[in-house]
Amino acid sequence: MVPATWPCPLPGGGQAREYALIFDHGRETRLLIVPALFDEGNRLRRLTVDVMRRLDGAGIDCVLPDLPGCNESLQPLEFQDTADWLDAMVAAARHFGATHALGIRGGCLFTPGHLPGWHYAPVKGSAILRQMLRARVLSAREAGREEDRDSLDALAHEDGIVLAGYPLGRDFYMQFATMAPQADATVIAQDDIGGSGLWLRAEPGENPKQADALAATLAIGLNA
């Protein structure tokens, strides 16, 4: 596994270099992985990389690109919108020659539509935002402040909002709230993997059995 960069399109034209983790041996089957989003991405990062290692051992190349404004990206998150993220994943797929795609949780909303693939535990944008709004309300309460979801939602529609430390612009928030995963991807439910989802944990964790199960499901499909 090595880091690499790829040319990500900018909203006003031009390109920025973004990072990706890759297992690349020039093999025929090449999987683009669109990561889980925000805090769920942190909790699922180890699982994602563990799955990539197992797929590499099964003869499958993998690439895990950063979304603009996330992880090592130097682009400001608050200036992104959902079309930027979709364009970025299409560009990453093209650059790395991906033949298939895997979306993880909220990443399922941004898998390139032209690639066959899988959605692991897909979730709607509105559900992610509800969780993030709830976390902010609870955090404010613990700090002695009163906030409620309706007023925060109204603020987000007007000026954007910071949720769990992530500054989301007004346009992103409004667009993201309406997004749902594509219906033509093959869904891998958590019950198919076993155990509870690692995104439910308070801190990032790992689960080798879940990584084995997810990688095996993907390898069977990719080698079919």
From TrEMBL:
SUPFAM superfamilies registered for this protein in UniProt: alpha/beta-Hydrolases (SSF53474)
Domain of life, per lineage: Bacteria
Protein name: Alpha/beta hydrolase
